[in-house]
Amino acid sequence: MGSPSAGDVRGLLRRARRLLGDARELIAEYDRAVAEARAALEPLRMRQVRAELGAMPVSRLKDVTSGRLRFGALRDAGYATVLSVLEATPYELQKVPGVGQQTRGQAQKAAERLARAVRESGAVHIDVDDRDAETTRLLVALSRLVAVGPELVRARRTALEVVRRLSVLIARARPLSSWLRRLLSGSRRLGRATEAATQLAGLLRYETETRLLIAQATTDLLRPPPDGALAWIDFELRAADYYNLLAELSAVAPSDQAAAEGFLPEDLAGRVRAQELDDTLRRVSLRGYQAFGARFALAQRRVILGDDMGLGKTIQAIAVLAHLHARGATHSLVVCPASVLVNWLREIEGRSSLQVYRLHGDDRLLAREAWLARGGVAVTTYDGLHALDPVPQVGAFVVDEAHYVKNPRARRSKAVARWCEHVETVLFMTGTPMENRLDEFRALVDRLRPGLLDGPVQPAGGAEGFRRAVAPVYLRRNQQDVLTELPELVHRDEWEEFSAADAAAYREAVEAGAFMAMRRAAYAVPEKSAKLERLRELVDAAAGAGLKVVVYSYFREVLAAVGGALGAPVHGPLDGGLTPGRRQEVVDAFSAVRGHAVLLAQIQAGGVGLNLQAASVVILCEPQVKPTLESQAVARAYRMGQVRRVQVHRLLTPDSMDERLLAIMQSKAALFDAYARRSHLAESTPDAVDVSGEALAEQIVREERERLAAAKPDGSLA
């Protein structure tokens, strides 16, 4: 086959140069926007460094001088903090009696080292209640990048690849563009030029799509930035996107690398770091700990991702799916509770280029046929999984809220187990792998790696030995270790004495042995309920501050009483009777309200899978039997993207079953901390805290009957 004509080559070169120019323009605009954001970030970082060093006592200088520094003279001279030493001139320090040139040099070098450490590890926190000019300038600068959306990552990567390849191919193909150049070029050079022209023609087959992607991103970057007020509004709506971008720009290393990597053994952590992670089909950047989580799932193949709620387990799962499909996988399946089905569909569509199918509802059979024929990611519910037989082309199986299948005898657990046997890559996701007993955790591990925990339920070495044994299959990171930008979380127990009507209802429930009636007795007579009166006060305070509130209860009757007591329109209640689509509509409507709003939710429904970071006040109407129910509920508000301090109010009654439930919850939480969360070694015995189900109810009813009978002279409950 001969070489192309000079006219054809000139046409190719014109198109290639135009595309190359577009790509270079996008890269230049991106670099300019990043530079502006970094310039706006610098004053805030310096302010934060100064604040931390100003709160750091001068004695900390000894930590970086191996204790050799004698700082007493500095302290006596008024240098009380590391900042005061850092900002002093050499002349000022050397004037201090007892401070010579060597001590002065050691002190200043130590202060500089601490300042570098603070700068490198400190993440900037944006306070929505302190809208100063410097922070506003930063948000305006960041908004240019955030506004482009998830396509910016792909557009910039494409532009870089266009520049890398076209700049070489254009130069190589140029000898074919005129008869004179052909005449002056040797046969070897002409051969290379012909090959380059062929490659150019192949690349330009997708010229229209590539130019459109790059041009749209460039146009978005060139739009005028919003004013300060609009930038703050956008930040509150998309705080997680802003903080993800800040983490990239700051290049801040986690304060505790081991914690960010789940305290895995070093040899395993090293293998995980070496695992490739293809982002071709992904439309979102990952934080460092999220990329590590995705790599862990890919490297180990069959794992439990047990990250604290609110750390982005869904994003990590999507990164795994995007990698596998980019590397040749054709089909994947996600199973989740019905309550989060819509959220999964939205996240996959918005965060990746993967085709997603909803295998739920009236069109599920048609969706299944399309998924099997075309490939992509199918999302179904636990109930829907029973009707799906494993198919060999499925390369990845994601199980969300995997603690739902901790009981191996349950129907849904058997359906999940059947799929696990036929799929190579399996990802269990749960922030609460263990609620009552260690056996629950072990059941999940056995589903993925049969035989890994052969032997006694509690391996030799107790909690620490157990964590070491499950390291190949279990990764967990906690909020306090990796989300340094989260605002404060304030827990407050609100103790309210029974009113006379409350006490009568409670005694009646105890006498009848009605455990659930005892739990909701404080709301039996709403117009005389002490807890409801306190709840109204808390909601009124939130309304005065323009804050959103989510109110949780286990009982629909209690939520109905709360709705009646508040009077004003409320959203919800979210309960198990709502379809997934309707649940999401309620949450969206609540989140869209400007200022104060109240959402009512059953804790077992509203505590799983929903993002409620629009709320910054959480009210728990009664303590729960499982601590995981409360922690899940709180984590729906206190999660990545939260910009306000979150206040959690738990309504309690003294001298009632509430006190016993708190003690039981603390025992269960201690078990979880020992075995499933990285913590100090605890020697808890799992069997000692098995207080679930009927045994729990019987125990509390019996104790309350004895206590109330002892309080009456005649031994009666009346």
Automatic annotation (TrEMBL):
Pinpoint the Helicase C-terminal domain residues. Answer: 534-685
Key word Hydrolase present:
yes
Keyword field: ATP-binding, Coiled coil, Helicase, Hydrolase, Nucleotide-binding
Residues annotated as domain Helicase ATP-binding: 294-451
Question: InterPro entries given for it?
Answer: Helicase_ATP-bd (IPR014001), Helicase_C-like (IPR001650), P-loop_NTPase (IPR027417), SNF2-like_sf (IPR038718), SNF2/RAD54-like_C (IPR049730), SNF2_N (IPR000330)
Citing just one GO molecular function, the answer is: helicase activity
The reply on keyword Coiled coil is yes
Q: Which residues form a coiled coil?
A: 13-40
Pfam families xref list: Helicase_C, SNF2-rel_dom
- The molecule here is called DEAD/DEAH box helicase
* Source organism (scientific name): Nonomuraea corallina
